[in-house]
Amino acid sequence: MPYDELERRVAERTAQLAEANERFEWVTKATSDGVYDWDLLHDTVYYSPRWKEMHGFQETEVLESAEGWSLRIHPEDRERVVGRLQDYLAGKYPEYWEEYRIRRNDGRVIWVLDRGVAQKNEQGRTVRMVGSETDITWRKEAEVTIRRRAHEFRTLADNVPALFSYIDRDQRYRFVNKRYEALFGRSAEEITEMSVRELLGPESYSEVKVQLDSAFSGKTVSHEVRLPMSKESDRWLSVQYVPDRNQEGTVVGLFILAADVTPLKLSEAALHDREEQLRDLSAKLLETQEDERRRLARDLHDDFSQRLAALTLDLRNLCHLASEPGALLASRLKTVGDATEQLTTDLLRVAHRLHPSILEHVGLEAACREHVEEFAAQTGLTVEVLVRDVPNNVPLKEATCLYRVLQESLGNVRKHASATNVLVRLLGTDRGVGLCVHDDGQGIDHTLAYRDRKGLGLTSMSERVLLLRGTFRLRTKPGEGTEVHAWVPLIDVKSDE
Predict the structure, then answer these.
(1) Is the dihedral of CA 95, 98, 104, 107 positive or negative?
(2) Cα–Cα distance for residue pair 182/229, rounded to 1 Å
(3) In the 8-state DSSP scheme, what is residue 414?
(4) For residue 17, what pLDDT is reported?
(5) Which tens digits make up the pLDDT trace of 222-250?
(6) Which of 50, 89, 219, 231 is the most exposed place for a label (fewest CB within 10 A)?
(7) Is residue 37 within 8 Å of 130, Cβ to Cβ?
(8) What is the pairing mode between strands 471-476 and 432-439?
């Protein structure tokens, strides 16, 4: 081969090698990785400029051997990293990569990802190893931060006094706190493999499905759900679903916060039972009062009034007998007889007020009309009575309730209203009977209305009606009159045609 041709080829190869070295340098710069080339036969190592910069060396510094490199590895990682490298070089692993901490030349500790490939000679002996290192300190710090945040989140989630979880679009649990384990008797790992339907069961799931669908449509939803528990009494949860959206605004899951409100429900039930007991007791008390009124009215009418009537007759006879001998005695006896007769009349009126027997014998409508006529005669007010569809067979308890409301309402009109006209309406409906007493008087301050404790008073009227599961309403304004509305339900009672 001519000398010129050989020289040309050497020049070409040199140019190719220079181009390859330049390309290698640009690649290492572009990847931001430090590159090393370890000659195991002579224990010499080539380190790229980026590797030197990463480890805190100047580019012109004489670098350490492989042993010097190993001494800079963090003591807690050194045995693992060196052992893995030796096993790789011995052929025990198909590849080598490790993450570890290493002390830079300036003393600062960094994390690196070390990856290498070994080259063997014809005898199968490892003679060379080429690798790269990436500074992953930022990633490790981020992982530590993430782990810390995850620990803080888990600690917070496990210690909130509620059930906290997250479900995906398939309604499968991806996270649950410890409260789920306590309530459902399953581990968090078990629950995160289940769907909402599997955990709650078909019955409870049917109660929450509508709310879940609404939440996945993008709404924040709150509701209460009852969970039948197999080994204990039912549990009540107050649940809130909060949609989780991605960057495009699509709902990808739900955050679920559920508070166990079973104690509150039990307290409410107990309070309701106590209210029912109190209502029954009050009803019995009112019934006892009415029975006592009825007994007193009967005694006054059947005993005392009859005796007074007889006494009146005796006085009249004495007056007749004494008319001849002395007119003065006769006049005196006549006065006593008139007073006794008036006492008898007043006593009968009191008996009637205590218990209007007309309620039992003729019915609610007749009793109300009679009382209104008596009220109009006593006060001189114009009173109109409107009656429509009222059954004749209204039970005595309901009839007495409405009659007492009428008495008290007209009594208030007489005492306080300064009215001219009064309208009394007694109206039957498909489900009950209502009474309305309206006057055109001066009205009252609604905020002070229930402070009246005299007689039945407004509060007592309301309580009497509510004991029969009715409704009581007062409409009034100063200067605009007053309306009292009372309605009581009836069972199996129809109005007469």
Answers:
(1) negative
(2) 12
(3) I
(4) 60
(5) 988 887 765 556 788 889 999 999 999 99
(6) 231
(7) yes
(8) unpaired
Given a cut of 70, is residue 21 above it in pLDDT?
Answer: no
**Residue 133, number of CB atoms within 10 A of its CB:** 22
The band of 315, judged by pLDDT with boundaries at 50, 70 and 90, is low
Report the C-alpha gap between 321 and 318 in whole angstroms: 5
Q: How much is the average pLDDT of 426-432?
A: 88
Q: How far is CA 161 from CA 110, 164, 258, in A?
A: 41, 9, 9
Domain 32-134 is classified in which CATH homologous superfamily? PAS domain (3.30.450.20)
Structure tokens at 377: 């005669």
Q: Residue 375 — very low, low, confident or very high, per pLDDT cuts 50/70/90?
A: confident
C-alpha torsion 312→314→315→318, nearest 10: 160
Q: Which of 264-268, 386-390, 474-478 has the highest mean pLDDT?
A: 386-390
Is the Cβ–Cβ distance between 40 and 128 less than 8 Å?
Answer: yes
State the CATH class of domain 160-260.
Answer: alpha beta
Q: How far apart are CA 342 and CA 109, in angstroms?
A: 116
| Number of Cβ within a 10 Å radius of residue 62 | 6
In the numeric block, the tokens 């006494």 are attached to 311
Query: What does the mean pLDDT of the chain come to?
Result: 80
Please say whether the beta carbons of 390 and 433 come within 8 A. Answer: yes
How many Cβ atoms from other residues are within 10 Å of residue 321's Cβ? 12
Residue 123, both tokens: 């005898």
How much of the chain exceeds pLDDT 90, in percent?
26
Predicted pLDDT at 495? 45
User: In three state form, how does the secondary structure of 355-380 look?
Assistant: CCHHHHHCCHHHHHHHHHHHHHHHHC
- CA-CA distance, 488 to 471, in Å (whole number)? 7
pLDDT tens digit string along 177-195?
Answer: 988 888 888 898 899 889 9
Note the pLDDT of residue 82.
93
Say how far residue 435 (Cα) sits from the centre of its chain.
38
Instruction: State the sign of the Cα–Cα–Cα–Cα dihedral 53, 56, 57, 58.
Output: positive
Strands 421-428 and 382-388: parallel
- Tell which residue, 333, 329, 410, has the closest CA to residue 368: 410
- Tokens 């339900």 belong to 489
In CATH terms, 358-489 corresponds, of 3.40.50.150, 3.30.565.10, 3.30.1360.30, 3.40.720.10, to 3.30.565.10
Q: What does the pLDDT read at residue 161?
A: 80
